[in-house]
Design a protein that fits this description.
- One of its GO terms (molecular function) is sulfotransferase activity.
- Its EC number is 2.8.2.-.
- By secondary structure, this protein is mostly helical.
- The chain is 52% helix and 6% strand.
- It has a two-stranded antiparallel ribbon.
- Strand 1 and strand 2 form a beta hairpin.
- The longest helix is centred in the C-terminal third of the chain and has 17 residues.
């Protein structure tokens, strides 16, 4: 799978205007701001008047974790998209909270995942943001160079 990551990263350097980076933490912190960024990236910006702002807010609410996780299809629905295995849709929803992994993984596993991530990022000359960086940075990208 590393070769796919390398190809994607090389493409993102060559075609920077065609790759959109966003971190879940940033999206959670400022959903309207990043929704507008995404729309602009796609070439479909919202209008800057009150109506446009209202539309952004409505869209963010409609696509919110709370709204999507409470839809009947996601609470009681299922699908068999994995061959013979039927999977309940609710399995795809946890709490939607930043750092929620600490409720599911032991600290040793989280440390191991962090280490593997850092090693993989080094191949691309990237550094993952730490929670300390979130406090210092006002730049909203997935990774820093």
């Amino acid at each position: 799978m590393d070769h796919i990551g390398i190809m994607c990263w090389e493409a993102s350097i060559e075609l920077l205007e065609r790759v959109f980076f966003i971190r879940y933490e940033d999206l959670k912190k400022e959903p309207c701001f990043h929704t507008k960024r995404l729309a602009e990236f796609l070439g479909l910006p919202f209008s800057t008047d009150k109506e446009g702002e209202s539309l952004v807010s409505k869209l963010v609410e409609l696509c919110s974790f709370k709204n999507l996780s409470n839809l009947d299809v996601n609470k009681i629905g299922s699908h068999s998209g994995f061959g013979f295995l039927v999977i309940e849709n609710k399995i795809f929803f946890r709490e939607g909270q930043i750092d929620d992994s600490q409720n599911y993984l032991e600290s040793e596993m989280m440390d191991h995942l962090d280490q593997v991530t850092e090693e993989r990022f080094k191949k691309f000359h990237l550094t993952a943001f730490s929670s300390e960086d979130d406090e210092k940075s006002d730049v909203s990208i997935a990774m820093q160079f």
